[in-house]
Amino acid sequence: MLEKLPAIISIRNLEKSYQNGRIENKVLKGIDLEIKPGQIIGYIGPNGAGKSTTVKILCGLLPDFEGDVEILGFDLRKDATEIKKHIGYIPENAALYDTLTPREYLQFVGELHQINPNTIPTKIEKLLDLFDMKDHADERLNSFSKGMRQKILIISGLIHNPKIIFMDEPLSGLDANSVIIVKEILTQLAKEGKTIFYSSHIMDVVEKISDRIILIDQGKVVADGSFAVLNAKDHSGSLEKLFTELTGTTGHSAKAEQIINAFEN
Amino acid sequence: MIGYILLPFRGIIRAMGVDFDQLCSILTIKIRMDNRRSLSLSKKKTESNNQLWLQSLVYAFLGGILVASLSKIESILVTYTIFFAFIMIMIAMLMISEFTTILMDTRDNNILMPRPINSRTLVLAKILHIAFYMLHLSFSLSLVMLVSTLISHGFVASLLLILLLVLSALFTLFLTNIFYLGLMNVVNGQKLKDIIVYFQIVMAILFMGAYQLVPRMMEMYDLSNIHMNIEWYSYLIPPVWMSAGIDAYISTNYTLTSLIFFLLALFVPLISLFFVIKVLAPKFNKALSQLDTASNKKVKSKVETKNKTNFIDQLATLFTKNSEEATVFKMVWLMSGRERKFKQTVYPAFGYIFIFILMFLLKSNETFSLEALAASKKYLFFIYMPIFLSFAVTQNLCYSDQAKSSWFYRALPLALPGTILRGSFKSGMVKYYLPVHIVIAIICLFIWGYSILDDLIYSALCIILLTSLIQSWQQPQLPFTAERETQDIGGNFVKGILLLLSIAVIGGIHYGLSFLPYSVLIAIPILLTLVYLNFRSYRKITWEKVLN
């Protein structure tokens, strides 16, 4: 059924390099992906694999890339503004305008997304209440804890009811209850037909919520499929084991032993 | 309010392909944040315009000092050339030192870039935000000059001055844009922030220097008859283009030269504005979008040389009593050189010392001569100048950009925090105060001879004793563990007054002792004992007394 649907995100030979003086650091080395609507994609990989770079490119934050990207049928290079109307982005590092209050910040984000100005305050009020942030609505963001800031980021990424949601470690800093709620929200949103691109290295969460897992290492896709399919191939038993096997980082026990020895001697 | 100001231009703005509503939203938020910048942490929402008003007052005061100093000059061309040079340099320097944090706010990459805002709207929002800031700066700086022009030369002259001010601000925008782009091409984000800190330090010193020295220098030299001849190179100096137009109008002397200057003043800034919008601003935005990612992906980090570490090790062994104190000494030595906020607050004190010495030398109306200086007792003033530095260093060592590391000290197996406080104090004094005292001592020895050697040792001990006494009297704070926002401004003022009074007292005692033979030599061992006893008193400080 899903196979018959046209791809909502189509990535062909995506490459990205960072220039540092004369040294070129190639982060993405040719990513090819077709993502169908309503899927929860778990995008995993070790540190420096290129996860955040992929997400930033897809959200239009890094315009300089090689290859072709189409989202909702629009070319990312030509129609980035049109694409951005339908996507939500929740980054890992809670970059917010610290001197504003959540109410002011969310009002601003709502205006930028051209939501009906009359409905924005009601919507903000409701969302802040649901995320247990109503009492802090008029406090400045610079006094917030990491988890509180993350909640504001999540609201700001979803306030305009996007069709595709890009998340880069969205659960970072959230307490256990909030993590459960966000996971539930993701599942519900996927049921409503939203596509979720979830980048993380918390294997447990990815394994539980993702319909499809894409593992990248050193800028290339090294595994792609549902957990059941991937597990059937490798018989690893858990995503964590599968991850370590595919990224070639085995021998953890030996390394741990070496570290302890280094401390003791 | 922004919406109302821009409403008459809505048609043109929309014709440029810019989303008017988004533009107004971005500008409103940006200006609201500017107003709240550097306000103390407040949990409740406070609407205030204080920051911008306060800045305006300071800049207007600075502009006023210049206008007062220029009032003696008869030549209109010279007066306005100096004025426009001042405005352009000040705008450029202030843009770099004060506005960079706003201009290079990489949070925009995560907050604005994922929203459906087209690049034209983003570029225009940035340009208008800068324009607002520049106009605010230039009109604050020129307020006194505008009033003075209105009174002395009439309404049209002041209108012309406003036009020329706008044009000079535009041209300065072009120059600063080129400066930023050039810098961003050669350095990464972190290095850029370091360079900006040095700019801020230079600005702080210039402000103090201009405030203290310029009026004195103006008094000393006869500026009333200065005149300026137009040479070929005058055509290359933008402040001359600006001033020539206003000079022609006021002195009703319309020549071909003044027409050329006026045309240059009019068209060069407009062409440069076009260049900024079409070429520089998009390049700037692109460079900015890669600034934080590029610096995160830094390939090679700076490696500290082994020689430097060896030198610090040797100093630590020389000045500290045990290994724990030596460790803190080395850590504070390294951290103080890397903490931007610390450098920003403390480094200007180096310049202030130089300015105070110059001020003291310029104070006397007689002509400067080394012989007359050597015959005086002015060294007693110079050798106490480094106390401002020792005070600035020790008072700021507790603040940090990332002030959440006090757990580190508390986790250490130390019964009492005195070792940390003593190591930190010694490190700050040896690194910053001692070299300055040595330099001043060498210069004084050169002028006054070896007979003042005892005075130099006496003053150094006095400064160390006074600074450590002030340190131990206040509530102790561990190095680099306090938020700068928690800085007690009122308390600092009181400490500053106490410091000035103490300097007057110890300077007075020293002056008195200088008339009694051998008295300074006798006082040295007494002071040494007091310093030693005060250092010992650090041992009594308990963890409960430490603030953070």
Automatic annotation (TrEMBL), chain A:
GO terms for molecular function: ATP binding; ATP hydrolysis activity. Residues 9-243 form the ABC transporter domain. Keywords: ATP-binding, Nucleotide-binding. Signal peptide: none annotated. The keyword ATP-binding applies. Pfam families: ABC_tran (PF00005). Gene3D superfamilies: P-loop containing nucleotide triphosphate hydrolases (3.40.50.300). InterPro entries: AAA+_ATPase (IPR003593), ABC_transporter-like_ATP-bd (IPR003439), ABC_transporter-like_CS (IPR017871), P-loop_NTPase (IPR027417). PROSITE patterns: ABC_TRANSPORTER_1 (PS00211), ABC_TRANSPORTER_2 (PS50893). This is ABC transporter. The lineage of its organism: Bacteria, Pseudomonadati, Bacteroidota, Bacteroidia, Marinilabiliales.
